[in-house]
Amino acid sequence: MTLNAGSSSIKFAVYPVNGDHPIAHGQLEKIGSDDAQLTLHGGNHSETRSEGSLDHTTGLRRILSALDGLTQGAAIAAVGHRIVHGGPDIDAPKILDSALLDKLAEYAPLAPLHQPHNLAAVHAAIAAFPEALQVGCFDTAFHRHHPWVNDTFALPRSYYDQGVRRYGFHGLSYDYIIHRLAQIDSHAAHGKTVVAHLGNGASMCAIRDGRSIGSTMGFSALDGLPMGTRSGQIDPGVLLYLMESHGMDAADLTDLLYKKSGLLGLSGLSNDMRTLETAGTDEAEQAIAYFTFRIRRELGAMAAILGGLDSLVFCGGIGEHSARIRAEVCTGMEWLGIALDAAANEAAADIISNGTTTVRVIPTDEEAIIAKAVRGFLAV
Ligand SMILES: Nc1ncnc2c1ncn2[C@@H]1O[C@H](COP(=O)(O)OP(=O)(O)O)[C@@H](O)[C@H]1O
Ligand SMILES: CC(=O)OP(=O)(O)O
Ligand SMILES: [Mg+2]
After folding, report:
1. I need a labelling partner for 235 at 20 to 30 A (CA). Which of 115, 294, 349, 351 fits?
2. Model confidence, pTM
């Protein structure tokens, strides 16, 4: 079984121990809204149902009971978990024992929208499947060998030694995409690639010869692009000002930056791109304009650190499904060798650019990369 708790979703799948096609899979989306949707697929059965308003904990309980029905009580040999933060040392999947779980709990303040839910899922899985192996797969692991200049901040060196580093996230998604790109076009997978993972959380990754050399996310999953409810990059002077002049403390800033900013804050309406694209208000349009502006800006920066660009890949809920956002990101990027093919983009075709830089849409599959890691531990 794989469990992948994102900020607004829980994705899940059940695989046979020695096969890479899930026997059941699905997702609970729009957690935190009053209209969460649970989609289930398994055998001949497919359904989407409204779950109303629920949190991650209740959502996980409903998922486990729905899966029980779909898998007809099949024994669960192992559960693979997406864990957003693995800290400075972890660069590969790990068996989750109690010492490691205690260590991972210490990183919860660094990823408050994710780490507590990821660890709650581990404890729920231990309770539900006490005999199963529990495996952690880390969003940070793919980025752990960044060049030093991209791993540090310009603070006194002791902070780096204490773990104040640029970690980067969405690593399971990037790992999957680069594996998939290697299957589609092995030459491209060895080249200079930028992957834009645009979901409720959004980041971009600069990949050279299959390895991450830069991420727009940094110490936390707040940095870089604006997101559903997160600010993205912000001048730290703003935070000092808010503390000094508005009397805000750490809890106020956490709430502001993680839960009230980004697309939600700018639009005053929603964190959900589908809602913003159809809203038609000036504020919703400005939120979309800021989102795509920051993606283009980071794309230029990443092409600079890569020394050029061979491939741009879109993935994540927005990257995979919004032709409009892909078009707005690509507009004006001819100088980078991108020439959008509008019809191919509308159709979300494999290749959507006619220029020297290949632009692709590749649906990401964090579950597949988790399941692969788990199979490694089961030695099948
Ligand atoms: N057809 C669509 N058009 C535009 N945006 C979409 C579409 N489908 C999903 N999205 C957006 O994808 C985002 C969720 O992405 P996802 O990767 O599932 O989230 P999470 O970061 O929680 O894993 C939401 O903003 C949602 O509106
Ligand atoms: C790290 C992160 O932002 O994850 P998600 O996109 O699933 O919220
Ligand atoms: Mg996600």
Report:
1. 115
2. 0.95
